[in-house]
């Protein structure tokens, strides 16, 4: 029951405070990861495994040790704080809503600038539909990466699980690229993130299918379109999400001056400001469902323990 209550407390903290405006711990971790990369880099997978281990495992082990030494109330408080720092639910809305507002106001330049803070593609050449698609895709994918994945690993392994997941996800964003520099060195970061996201991504896709009101469409898109996507986890999340929303996402996108082909996802209408808002609502509904399930399971197991 304490785990479910910690999840509820952390989500409420994130909704109230959002991400720390100054000195977010992940910024410090990013500096640490760069320092390790400078000293451990080599064009080999072994070097990447070593660098990942040096960056992540000591911090997870320290957290485990600290929690064991603390009284139960202090350990619970640390767990709440750790999950709060691992979540990015409010931040997701703070980034996506300005895109929707600018599109509703027919201010394409403002929409491009706003979506540029969410995605890595060349936003200056995007039209209204492509801006809406980029923002909607980001909400769906980051709904898993910044919300459901952290909740899942917290439920499974507590605060160390949430920390392990968030740090791994951060290293994947830093090193997990198929470029000459990171093809081998970043292999471990990318594969570990894939493994840690395998179950959460599919639970997130199922959550979208349930919350979107178009379960059969979401399931059909998940089954037929997700295997065509490069990422084994983003594919199910975005395909199911697009199907649940009844919009068409994916398709070619510009990166570094080149339009790269991507499979199409979803079915139905072109994306718009409304699809961004609906995607945010779907994530919110999913969070509420996850919290209700966690609280119900907590009550069941708590009652069983006292039977």
UniProtKB/TrEMBL annotation:
It is found in: Cell membrane. Pathway: Cofactor biosynthesis; adenosylcobalamin biosynthesis. It is a multi-pass membrane protein. It holds the Pfam family CobD_Cbib. Keywords: Cell membrane, Cobalamin biosynthesis, Membrane, Transmembrane, Transmembrane helix. Belongs to the CobD/CbiB family. This is Cobalamin biosynthesis protein CobD. It comes from Dyella flava. The lineage of its organism: Bacteria, Pseudomonadati, Pseudomonadota, Gammaproteobacteria, Lysobacterales. The gene is cobD.
